[in-house]
């Protein structure tokens, strides 16, 4: 190689300098890329962290609202329950007081005894007398039977009144005596009014002496020959007794 082909010293320096510049430029580009990538990653991580934090806050807020709603509903239900229980208790107390008042007032007045008298329940004649010691003739049945009651004649739709104060024990429809009202008069005494219609009472009602018990109906098939009548029976401790022993004189 001749001297003209050998690179000069100055050229070598320029080449070296160029290489250094290229190297520095490469490092700068790499650093810039790395920094940009790091910056983007950091920003994304920050945004993700913020999103997670917001999601946690939303979840906590939702859980708190649900808990408050549950607590509020439980409180409302408890309040409603307390109110219902209070209303029920008040109603029960009212009913008990009413029952006690009625019982005290009523039972204090139904105290029938052997010394008391009965009002005539209907205006009419006795067509069949009480008879439990011997049989009497029943025209409709054409036979002799014991008769535990008074059969008192009357007209259709006649008023039938209570013979004494009492409480309605039952209202039954029986084959022999039709619509029949049984009245508890106290001390084991009961009075039965049969062959009625349009009874204006219900079980448990308190009835004063003279109050309307019902109206005379058409007779049942057991008393068709005897005609329209009132079946009037008095019992003491479940056993029939003669009403005539207690009837007031008209």
Automatic annotation (TrEMBL):
Residues 151-243 form the M23ase beta-sheet core domain. It comes from the Bacteria. Residues 49-65 have a biased composition (Basic and acidic residues). Signal peptide: none annotated. Residues 98-108 have a biased composition (Low complexity). It holds the Pfam family Peptidase_M23. This is Peptidoglycan DD-metalloendopeptidase family protein. InterPro entries: Cell_wall_metabolism_enzyme (IPR050570), Dup_hybrid_motif (IPR011055), M23ase_b-sheet_dom (IPR016047). Coiled coil: none annotated. CDD domains: M23_peptidase. Residues 49-108 are annotated as: Disordered.
């Amino acid at each position: 190689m001749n001297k003209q082909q050998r690179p000069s010293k100055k050229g070598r320096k320029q080449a070296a300098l160029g290489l250094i510049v290229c190297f520095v430029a490469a490092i700068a580009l790499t650093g810039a890329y790395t920094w940009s990538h790091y910056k983007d990653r950091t920003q994304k991580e920050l945004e993700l962290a913020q999103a997670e934090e917001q999601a946690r806050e939303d979840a906590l807020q939702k859980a708190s609202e649900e808990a408050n709603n549950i607590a509020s509903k439980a409180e409302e239900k408890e309040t409603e329950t307390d109110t219902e229980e209070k209303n029920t208790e008040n109603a029960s107390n009212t009913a008990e007081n009413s029952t006690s008042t009625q019982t005290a007032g009523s039972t204090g007045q139904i105290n029938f005894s052997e010394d008391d008298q009965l009002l005539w329940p209907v205006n009419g004649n006795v067509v069949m007398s009480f008879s439990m010691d011997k049989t009497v003739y029943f025209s409709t049945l054409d036979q002799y039977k014991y008769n535990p009651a008074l059969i008192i004649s009357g007209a259709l739709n006649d008023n039938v009144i209570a013979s004494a104060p009492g409480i309605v024990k039952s209202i039954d429809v029986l084959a022999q005596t039709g619509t029949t009202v049984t009245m508890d008069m106290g001390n084991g005494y009961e009075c039965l009014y049969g062959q009625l219609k349009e009874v204006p009472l219900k079980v448990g009602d308190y009835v004063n002496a003279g109050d309307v018990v019902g109206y005379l109906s058409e007779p049942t098939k057991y008393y068709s020959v005897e005609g329209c009548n009132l079946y009037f029976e008095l019992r003491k401790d479940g056993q029939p007794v003669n009403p005539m022993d207690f009837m007031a004189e008209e």
